[in-house]
C-alpha cells in the first residue's frame, strides 16, 4: 500500500499549540512534512516574500514526521514545499492550522492559514484549513483534532471535485456540546476597525488596531457564523475566483 504524504503548515508559527494539533491530525493519515513560519504571520493572507532571503531550519525529524521553520509567510511555506523541497513527490493533502482564532466569514480573506490552504488548492492539491474559534495560546484543541480527523478522512476517502479547499471552524464549546458538522456558506459582513491613539515617551503618536465584526445577515441560518453560534462545526468550500458574475451582464450594457 502506498503511504500518503500529508503537508502541514499554518500562520501561528511552528511553535504554536495549534500547529502541533494539526500534525497530530495529519499523522493519522500518513507521512507528514510540516513547514511553518518562524514567527507569527497572522493576517498575511496570500503575501509572499519578494525582497528578502528565505532560510529553512529543521526543527524535528523522527519516523514519519519532519518539521521545518521558514522565515517567511504561510504562502512562502507552501511554495517552498511544493516547488523545491517536495517537488519530486506526490502530496496527497494539505492541512493548514490549526489556527488560534476563527477564520469564518470575511476572515477567510485576511487569514494566513487560509491563504496557505488556498495556495495548495492552486496546485491541485486538496486542502483543509482548520481553525479554533478560541484564539488563546493555550486553547483546548481536543474538539479540533477530533473533527479535523473526521473532515480529512472524508476528503481523502471520497472522490470530491478539484480544486478543493475547505474552511473548517470549530466552536469554542466543550466537545460533548458540539452538535455536528454543517456545510454552509460564508457570512456576508465586514470588520469595522478602531484605531486607538497613544503617545510614546518622545511625543510621537502611535496607534493600536482593533475592531469588531459587523454581521450583515444575522438572521440567515445557512452561514458559517450561524453554524458556529448554534454549536456546529462549520465547513465552507472556498475558491480563488472572486469574479462578480452577477454584474457581468449589467456592466456589459453600460461599458
How does this structure look, described?
With 255 residues, this protein is of the alpha/beta class. It has a single domain (5-188, 219-254), classed as Survival protein SurE-like phosphatase/nucleotidase (Stationary-phase Survival Protein Sure Homolog, Chain: A), CATH 3.40.1210. It contains 7 helices and 11 strands. The strands form 2 sheets. Strands 3-4-2-1-5-6-7-11-8 form a 9-stranded mixed β-sheet, sandwiched between helices. A two-stranded antiparallel ribbon has the order 9-10. A hairpin with a 2-residue loop joins strand 3 and strand 4 (65-70). Helix 1 (17-26) packs parallel to helix 5 (142-157) and helix 2 packs parallel to helix 4 (112-122). It is globular and about 50 Å long. The model has no long low-confidence stretch (mean pLDDT 96).
| Main β-sheet description | 9 strands, mixed
Q: What shape does the CA trace take?
A: globular
CATH superfamily: Survival protein SurE-like phosphatase/nucleotidase
Separation, N- and C-terminal Cα atoms: 57 Å
Instruction: Report the oligomer.
Output: single chain
Q: How are the strands ordered across the major sheet?
A: 3-4-2-1-5-6-7-11-8
Q: How many domains would you count in the coordinates? A: 1
> What is the alpha-carbon Rg in Å?
19 Å
Strand content: 25-35%
Q: What does the average pLDDT come to?
A: 96
Amino acid at each position: 500500500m502506498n503511504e500518503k504524504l500529508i503537508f502541514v503548515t499554518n500562520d501561528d508559527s511552528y511553535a504554536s499549540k495549534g500547529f502541533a494539533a494539526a500534525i497530530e491530525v495529519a499523522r493519522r493519515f500518513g507521512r507528514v512534512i510540516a513547514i511553518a513560519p518562524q514567527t507569527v504571520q497572522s493576517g498575511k493572507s496570500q503575501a509572499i516574500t519578494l525582497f528578502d532571503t528565505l532560510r529553512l531550519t529543521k526543527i524535528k525529524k523522527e519516523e514519519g514526521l519532519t518539521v521545518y521553520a521558514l522565515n517567511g509567510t504561510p504562502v512562502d511555506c507552501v511554495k517552498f514545499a511544493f516547488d523545491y523541497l517536495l517537488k519530486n513527490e506526490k502530496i496527497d493533502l494539505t492541512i493548514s492550522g490549526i489556527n488560534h482564532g476563527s477564520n469564518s466569514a470575511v476572515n477567510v480573506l485576511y487569514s494566513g492559514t487560509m491563504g496557505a490552504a488556498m495556495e495548495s488548492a492552486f496546485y491541485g492539491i486538496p486542502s483543509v484549513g482548520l481553525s479554533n474559534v478560541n484564539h488563546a495560546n493555550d486553547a483546548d484543541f481536543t474538539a479540533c483534532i477530533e473533527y479535523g480527523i473526521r473532515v480529512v478522512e472524508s476528503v481523502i476517502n471520497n472522490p470530491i471535485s478539484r480544486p478543493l479547499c475547505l474552511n473548517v471552524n470549530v466552536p469554542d464549546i466543550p466537545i460533548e456540546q458540539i452538535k455536528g458538522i454543517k456545510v454552509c456558506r460564508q457570512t456576508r459582513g465586514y470588520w469595522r476597525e478602531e484605531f486607538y491613539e497613544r503617545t510614546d515617551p518622545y511625543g510621537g503618536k502611535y496607534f493600536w488596531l482593533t475592531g469588531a465584526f459587523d454581521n450583515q445577515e444575522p438572521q440567515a441560518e445557512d452561514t458559517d457564523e450561524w453554524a458556529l453560534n448554534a454549536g456546529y462545526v462549520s465547513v465552507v468550500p472556498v475558491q480563488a475566483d472572486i469574479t462578480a458574475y452577477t454584474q457581468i451582464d449589467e456592466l456589459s450594457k453600460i461599458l
